[in-house]
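Support request from a user on the community tier.

User writes: "When I paste my structure tokens into the form, the page sometimes reloads and wipes my input. The last time it worked, I copied everything first. Here is what I submitted, just in case something in the input itself triggers the reload:"
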């Protein structure tokens, strides 16, 4: 085979009760992907994370939830060209401590306050040569929030609050960045089976991923903090949905979303990411707009259960120095459909004897400008990433090859590109 992809994922969870009011939870995850090619390329990447969570009940109204999270992401590339070996490495490690305190003012009114801190450690670009390697970076990210979940009437509920975030680079003299992130949602029950929901939120992301698909088999991403002119990405999101239960077994929903983004990033044509000590000079910033609709039909009870979903979304970018300064620099469509069916056999009325689950893989098509195409990168990560966008998804689109020229004609394959984010 020209390509040999392998991957695995491990999950483990355990929890125990300590006394009458305390409980401990411990979880672990390890994922690892490898691509080997007959051209001498070896790429392996993966993430390891663990969470220790403690919950404490102070009584009938007070509840505390505290978590300590450790995560470590690594991406290593090795290839041999004309008997010369090249090694490249990037990664991101986090130590995350957060706590949230809930107070029930009334049975239908919950007040939540919390705070957290994350220590980020970046390995943005490390290679065999010190001249082309970038220095390691560290940063602190702080957050605090207050949130009120209030069911004002039997048919009317509100959820509103304010999230305050701050970002402090530790390896430079740049000032601490502070951004407020308000959010509000409303839930209206039309009757016992139908409801309407609407929401608005502002989200700030202090970590940007620089990604360039310069190779056929793999994508090379580098995680950078908001330093040295790389500003945090900001997105305002508005969403609305209609939800309906019918025939005592079925449920359906229609959700729409609209997102407006600031300081979204892209690369100049033919950007060089590997062995480039000035990689940020390849980046340009601009605005992005995304909108879409999601349909879902589910059968929740009975011997046969399952769901059918369909998603259509569109993203447009307007970024300086991309596509000859002719906005939008990119028009991107995603169409996705998926089906999942579960069948169960029972002995008697309640005791399950066995179950069979069949999932029809999702069908996804991507379009750059007006030309429909599938992703050219066939790796385990690319395959598993091919899923419909959700209301909370970012502006990033599924991974594709970046600007390249065909060997026969030299014509450019696509006018502009789309980096992805995790």
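"...and here is what came back when it finally went through:"
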């Amino acid at each position: 085979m020209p390509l040999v992809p392998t991957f695995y994922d491990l999950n483990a969870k355990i929890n125990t009760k300590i006394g009458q009011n305390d409980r401990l939870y411990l979880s672990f995850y390890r994922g690892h992907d490898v691509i080997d090619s007959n051209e001498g390329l070896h790429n392996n990447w993966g993430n390891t994370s663990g969470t220790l969570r403690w919950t404490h009940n102070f009584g009938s109204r007070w509840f505390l939830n505290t978590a300590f999270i450790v995560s470590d992401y690594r991406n290593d590339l090795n290839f041999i060209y004309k008997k010369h070996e090249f090694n490249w490495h990037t990664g991101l490690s986090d130590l995350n401590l957060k706590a949230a305190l809930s107070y029930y003012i009334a049975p239908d009114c919950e007040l939540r306050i919390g705070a957290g801190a994350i220590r980020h450690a970046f390995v943005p670009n490390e290679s065999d040569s010190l001249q082309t390697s970038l220095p390691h970076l560290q940063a602190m990210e702080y957050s605090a929030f207050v949130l009120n979940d209030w069911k004002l009437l039997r048919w009317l509920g509100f959820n509103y609050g304010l999230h305050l975030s701050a970002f402090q680079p530790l390896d430079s003299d740049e000032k601490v960045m502070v951004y407020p992130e308000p959010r509000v949602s409303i839930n209206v029950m039309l009757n016992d089976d139908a409801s309407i929901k609407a929401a608005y939120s502002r989200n700030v992301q202090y970590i940007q991923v620089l990604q360039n698909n310069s190779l056929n088999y793999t994508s090379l991403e580098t995680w950078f903090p908001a330093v040295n002119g790389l500003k945090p990405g900001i997105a305002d999101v508005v969403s609305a949905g209609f939800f309906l239960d019918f025939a005592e077994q079925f449920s359906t929903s229609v959700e729409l979303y609209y997102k407006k983004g600031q300081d979204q990033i892209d690369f100049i044509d033919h950007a060089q990411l590997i062995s480039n000590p000035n990689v940020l000079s390849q980046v340009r910033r601009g605005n992005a707009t995304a909108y879409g609709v999601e349909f879902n039909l589910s059968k929740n009870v009975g011997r046969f259960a399952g769901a059918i979903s369909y998603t259509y979304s569109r993203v447009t970018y307007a970024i300086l120095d991309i596509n000859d300064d002719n906005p939008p620099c990119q028009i991107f469509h995603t169409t996705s459909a998926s089906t999942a069916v579960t069948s169960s056999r029972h002995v008697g009325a309640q005791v399950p004897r066995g179950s069979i689950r069949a999932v029809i893989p999702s069908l996804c098509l991507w379009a750059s400008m007006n030309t429909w195409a599938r992703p050219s990168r066939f790796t385990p990560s690319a395959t598993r990433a091919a899923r419909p966008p959700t209301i909370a998804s970012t502006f990033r689109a599924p991974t594709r090859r970046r600007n390249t020229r065909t060997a026969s004609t030299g014509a450019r394959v696509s006018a502009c590109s789309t980096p992805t984010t995790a």
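Agent notes: The reload is a front-end session timeout and is unrelated to the input. The two ends are 29 Å apart (CA to CA). The first helix runs from residue 380 to 385. Escalated to web team.
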